[in-house]
Amino acid sequence: MIDGATTTVKVAHVRLCHSRMLFVRVYPRETQEMVFDAHDNAFAFFGGACARGIYDNMKTAVDTIFVGRDRAYNRRFQQMCGYYLVDPVACTPASGWEKGQVENQVGVVRRRFFVPRPKFKSYAELNAWLEDRCVAWAKANPHQELRDRTIWEVFQDERASLVPYVGPFDGFHAVPASVSKTCLVRFDKNRYSVDGRAVGRPVEIRAYAERVEFWQDGKIVGQHARAFGRDKAIYDPLHYIPVLARKPGALRNGAPFRDWDLPSAIRRVQRKLGKVPNGDRQMVQILSMIPIDGLDAVDSACAEALNEGVPAASVVINILARHREPPPPLTIDTPAALRLTCEPVADCNRYDSLRRPNHGKITGAGRDEPAEALRHEGRLR
């Protein structure tokens, strides 16, 4: 039971052959990006990866089955194995004994973890609970061969032999798509919003197990938590700011803005601007500052404008601009060893003294001679 509804889930099973340490994780589907996510969470849980992996001939990993154990693995699956330094080995079709540990684990997990039917609000809550159950199971059950030790104790010794965990693999499933005039992209029977400036050009969808990203020209133009089901429209109101610049009236009744939970100060400014002419356009100008300064900064600027009694777009933008200015430089005290004993005095009259003759003589002419004598002799240059 997930969020009050009976749900059929797909459970990824992983098990270390030596210690028999198990790991299970639940997903709504058995797609390639979810297989990648299961590997990453399993290796992070174990603290490392195994040097050799025994796999069933699942379509998310194997493209073609040849004679014997020869397989044509999926390109992305090979990239994942190369990233974690895992050597994949495929089982013979219809030979469950070749991966008997996992085959037996399926029944054990079903009986021990899913009977009676568990109830959770989300997949994340269920997976966290399953991870705790895996640890509790390993600590409470003895190893099948080393009967005097538990599975958890053997697993602690095996960790030193694992390939070090290097972080998550960028395991996404990429497909091209087009953007509709309403800034929506259809993927997996649902629609997601993207930046209004991306309309009219194709995007690349990168689907992960828990999120969806939309890329265009090497930049992310949209990102959402992944939705399952069908015919859902997932909006990000900030994606429609460029559209509001042309149609500010859509802010009142547009579908992307109906459930927009704005902070209290911004909401109060919106109510006040709704009573003045050109108020929608001023509100759009304020909202357009959120991608630049952040939601909290805009909310603080609106609160300051309300306190001053001038809830206008020009005032809010001015407050944000002032807060954006760098702080004044720090005053550094001069050490005593570097202080001047006789500080210079700024006196411009010293320059005027160079224009006045010094008692009829020119200083620096080689020797002091009257100026008149130098002029007559032509020696003054």
From TrEMBL:
Q: Where are the transmembrane segments?
A: none
Bias (Basic and acidic residues) occurs at: 366-381
> Transposase for insertion sequence element IS21-like C-terminal domain: from which residue to which, for each copy?
164-236
Q: Which Pfam families match?
A: Mu-transpos_C_2
Show the segment(s) annotated as Disordered. 353-381
| GO molecular function (one) | nucleic acid binding
Q: Which Gene3D superfamilies match?
A: Ribonuclease H-like superfamily/Ribonuclease H
Please name the NCBIfam families in this protein's record.
transpos_IS21
What's the protein called, per UniProt? Integrase, catalytic region
Tell me which species this is from: Sagittula stellata (strain ATCC 700073 / DSM 11524 / E-37)
